[in-house]
Amino acid sequence: MKIMAIDYGDAHTGVAVSDRTGTLCGFSAVVTAYRPEAVIEKLLPLIAEHEVTELVLGHPINMDGSRGPRAEKAEAFAEQLRAASGLPVTLWDERRTTVDAHNILAANGKRARERKKTVDAVAASLMLEGYLTYKKRNG
After folding, report:
1. Is 116 in contact with 105 (CB distance < 8 Å)?
2. Checking DSSP bridges between strand 25-32 and strand 89-93, what pairing results, if any?
3. 119 HSE (CA, 13 A, CB side)
4. Mean pLDDT value of segment 92-106
5. Which of 40, 47, 44 is closest to 17 using CA atoms?
6. What is the DSSP letter of 51?
7. Which of 5, 10, 36, 54 has the most other CB atoms within 10 Å of its CB?
8. CB atoms inside a 10 Å sphere around CB 46
């Protein structure tokens, strides 16, 4: 059982894949593409290569719990991803993951330019970590 977390963005999409036990992040990367179809086109080979069985997509809910345009965009992308991959897609509340990723990278001495290259992969890893913890606690 491998799970892929996806932090979908306008130009950069972070990807993190769990190990086979579903307890650790074993792989992370950033996919650069602008159109949803192009993102999916780049994700499908990664899904196959890593033998992913479940997808977790960041759901950017507003801090007050409401859904805005970004959340709706993620929901539409989830439908496209389900259809293209044939895998279940779970929408996962991603509030603060990008902020936390920037803080982690900054605390480790990464300058803004260096952070820009990896922040989406770190955000996807944080999302995956949260989801794996949830699954472990709730079966």
Report:
1. no
2. unpaired
3. 21
4. 79
5. 47
6. T
7. 5
8. 16
% the chain with pLDDT above 70: 96
Here the tokens at position 102 are: 């920037």
The torsion region of residue 123 among left (phi > 0), alpha (psi -120 to 50) and beta comes to alpha
Residue 115 has pLDDT above 70, yes or no: no
Query: How many domains in the chain?
Result: 1
One-letter amino acid at 4 equals: M
Tens of pLDDT, residue by residue over 66-91, are 888 999 999 999 999 999 999 999 99
Which letter does DSSP use for residue 64 in this model? T
Residue indicated by tokens 């496209």: 80
109, 111, 116, 118: CA torsion to nearest 10: -20
24 conformational bin, left if phi > 0, alpha if psi -120 to 50, beta if neither: beta
CATH number at residue 102: 3.30.420.140
Q: Which amino acid is at 59?
A: H
Domain that holds residue 66: 3-138
- Secondary structure letter of residue 11 according to DSSP: S
Half-sphere exposure of 2 (CA within 13 A, CB side): 18
117-128, pLDDT tens digit by residue?
A: 788 888 999 999
